[in-house]
Amino acid sequence: MSSFLLTSDFDDSFLYKGQVLHVDLSFDNVLRVFELFKDPVFSDGEKIEIALEMLLIEYSSIQHLSTKDLYTLFLYIFKEFLDMDLTQQEEADSQKVYDFEQDAGIIYASFLRAYQMDLFEQHGKLHWRKFLQLLTHLDEKSKFKEVISYRQMKVPAPDKHNQEYRDHVMRMKRMYRLEQEINEQQALEQLDKKFDNVAAFLKTRG
C-alpha cells in the first residue's frame, strides 16, 4: 500500500517475475482508466487488457501472460498503487460526493484559482497522488468543496423561519446532483464479481 511522505520520491515500479515494471501514474492517465471502466462499449475483459496497456509502460513484455496472471497483476496494481482493493466491496451506505467526469469543470476551476495550476498543462506531469492531495485539501471556500458540502447537506426540517433557506438548499442540491449512481470504485468492483466472464475473454486472446 502506498504512503505519502515528503522525504521520499514516489516509487512507481515493482518487480514482477524477475522484471521491473513501471506504472504510469500521471493523474490524467489514471482518470482515463477510470473513464474506461464506465464505458459500455468495451467488454469487461477488454477493459482489463486496455487498462494494463495504459498503466504499464512495459505492457508489451507481459501481454502474453496467462489469464490468471494478467488478472492478478491488474488487481495488484490497483491495490498497491491506487489504494483500491477491488476484492473488497464498498460499504452499502457509502455516499458518492463527487465524480471526476461530471465535476471536471469545477475541479479545473478550483485548482486554477487555489493553486494557479492549469490541469491541462499538467497532463503527463502531475502525479496521481499529488493530484489527490491537492484535491482533498482544497480550501473550504473553493467551488469544489462548496459543491460537496451541498451534496452532503441535509435539508433542515421546516419551521416558520427557514423556508427561504430550505428552498435555497434544495435548489443547490438539485443543481449539483450527481447523475450517475455508480462511482469508479463500484464499476471496478463489478469486474471482480464477473471474473469468469473476464477469464473467458482473456483466454481467447491467443
Topology:
Layout: E1 13-16, E2 19-22, H1 27-37, H2 44-55, H3 67-82, H4 104-115, H5 128-136, H6 143-152, H7 163-175, H8 184-193, H9 195-203
Antiparallel strand pairs: 1-2
Helix pairs in contact: 1-2, 2-3, 2-9
Q: How widely separated are the two ends? A: 33 Å
Poorly predicted regions: none
Number of helices: 9
Helix content: 40-55%
Q: What number is the mean pLDDT?
A: 86
Classify the beta-strand content into a percent band.
Answer: under 5%
Q: Which structural class matches the secondary elements?
A: mainly alpha
Structure notes:
This protein is mainly alpha-helical and 206 residues long. Helices cover 50% and strands 4% of the residues. It contains 9 helices and 2 strands; from the N terminus they run E-E-H-H-H-H-H-H-H-H-H. The chain has helices at residues 27-37, 44-55, 67-82, 104-115, 128-136, 143-152, 163-175, 184-193, 195-203; strands at 13-16, 19-22. A two-stranded antiparallel ribbon has the order 1-2. The mean pLDDT is 86.
Brief overview, please?
The chain is mostly helical and 206 residues long. The chain has helices at 27-37, 44-55, 67-82, 104-115, 128-136, 143-152, 163-175, 184-193, 195-203, and strands spanning 13-16, 19-22.
